[in-house]
Design brief:
Layout: E1 3-11, E2 14-22, E3 25-30, H1 37-45, E4 52-57, E5 60-64, E6 69-70, E7 78-81, H2 93-99, H3 114-121, H4 136-148, E8 154-158, H5 166-182, E9 186-191, H6 194-200, E10 203-208, E11 211-217, H7 218-225, E12 231-242, E13 247-252, E14 255-260, E15 269-275, E16 279-282, E17 293-304, E18 309-316, E19 319-326, H8 327-332, E20 340-345, E21 349-352
Parallel strand pairs: 3-9, 3-10, 7-8, 8-9
Antiparallel strand pairs: 1-2, 1-4, 4-5, 5-6, 10-11, 12-13, 12-15, 13-14, 15-21, 16-20, 17-18, 17-20, 18-19
Helix pairs in contact: 2-4, 4-5
Length: 353
């Protein structure tokens, strides 16, 4: 299934203009607060009627202002997961889940089998409990399950992890990954978290001031989305686990990487997102330092910034890394394109691919 969006909508002085296509997988809408992400999701979900445009799933229009088409929200078969779970407090988890069946009409869409959804989200032990006894992460898993049981053709997620602490986010992220990989429907996911987008997205749509400024694969677009810090993404896979030190060892084109233990089997693909601010450069391979990851590379380019800094693009055996140094450091090390260097990686977001 695919989602097509081409809309133009004005609300007071704010104007939203957006055009993109989303395939199965997870498309992240990324941008600052006020960029129009939630308004766009609400247009897709049928909560806002746009002034002009078209929204279609697999070519079937939900909105087409030229033809006078506007399918009401309750007939769109779209699963919507909000920042707060919005579960019915008087119903058990099982009855909250089964409520989704009321919206299941016709064939197609994501799986509507209760047992499959329970297994997918790992909520079998919660069925007889009520929402007030659940953690934030458990509530969101139930909310996702309820959305899936409506057999949606599309799932909308509006910052579903924003109200959760780090522990609860870590709890629910693997289930969103499974949803992305196994549900077989497009997911439109609103976020302003680079780490979430790096882990979950297949496609990134960057929004600013009501407009889409870039669309493309996460590997290409995420560094643009993280413009404040800059960075690069490495594709890697787990080659072994070091149980003694609770580390996982990864293999990438840039070299071997050691990271805190990942809950994934040997051979599993991962994404390594490395911010430019977390990369130091040395002219010689450093010794007796605490950093575990040192990668050999060659300077590909140096781009001065307006803040007495420079963005250094590194070629590490064909893989690209970014480093952000002060102009003084660039001068002191006599850095120029073509010079071999060693990248000392201080901190990395290593996530499941």
């Amino acid at each position: 299934m695919s989602l097509e969006v081409d809309v133009d909508h004005r609300r007071g002085a704010f104007r939203l203009q957006a055009r993109f296509t989303a395939a199965p997988g997870l498309t992240a809408l990324f941008g600052r607060s006020g960029s129009g992400k939630t308004s766009l999701v609400n247009i897709v979900g049928g909560l806002i009627r746009p002034d002009r445009g078209r929204v279609a799933i697999d070519g079937q229009p939900l909105v087409d202002t030229d033809r006078g088409v506007f399918v009401p929200a309750h007939r769109r078969r779209i699963g919507y997961v909000f920042q707060d779970s919005r579960l019915f407090p008087h119903l058990s988890v099982r009855r909250n889940l089964l409520y989704g069946h009321w919206f299941a009409r016709g064939a197609g869409g994501a799986t509507a089998d209760l047992g499959t959804v329970i297994e997918l989200l790992g909520i079998g032990h919660l069925l007889d409990r009520h929402p007030d006894s659940l953690s934030g992460g458990e509530k969101q898993r139930v909310a996702i399950g309820r959305a899936l049981l409506a057999r949606p053709r599309l799932v909308l997620m509006d910052e579903p992890l924003a109200s959760l602490d780090e522990a609860r986010r870590a709890e629910i992220l693997p289930f969103i990954e499974r949803l992305r990989d196994e549900a077989g429907v497009p997911i439109l996911y609103v976020s302003h978290s680079v780490a979430e987008v790096a882990r979950l997205a297949t496609t990134v749509v960057i929004m600013a001031e009501g407009r889409i400024t870039a669309v493309g694969p996460v590997q290409d677009i995420l560094p643009m989305a993280d413009a404040a810090d800059g960075g690069a993404m490495l594709e890697a896979r787990i080659v072994r686990h070091d149980e003694r030190f609770q580390l996982s060892v990864l293999e990438s084109a840039a070299g071997e990487l050691q990271v805190p233990s990942l809950d994934a089997p040997v051979g599993a693909p991962v994404r390594a997102y490395i911010r430019a601010r977390d990369v130091m450069l040395s002219l010689q391979r450093p010794e007796d330092i605490s950093a575990l990851n040192v990668l050999a590379g060659r300077i590909a380019s140096i781009t001065p910034t307006a803040t007495a800094q420079a963005d250094i693009r590194l070629d590490c055996n064909g893989a690209i890394l970014m480093a952000r140094l002060t102009a003084k450091s660039v001068d002191r090390l006599a850095l120029v394109p073509g010079r071999p260097v060693y990248a000392v990686v201080k901190s990395v977001s290593f996530e499941r691919s």
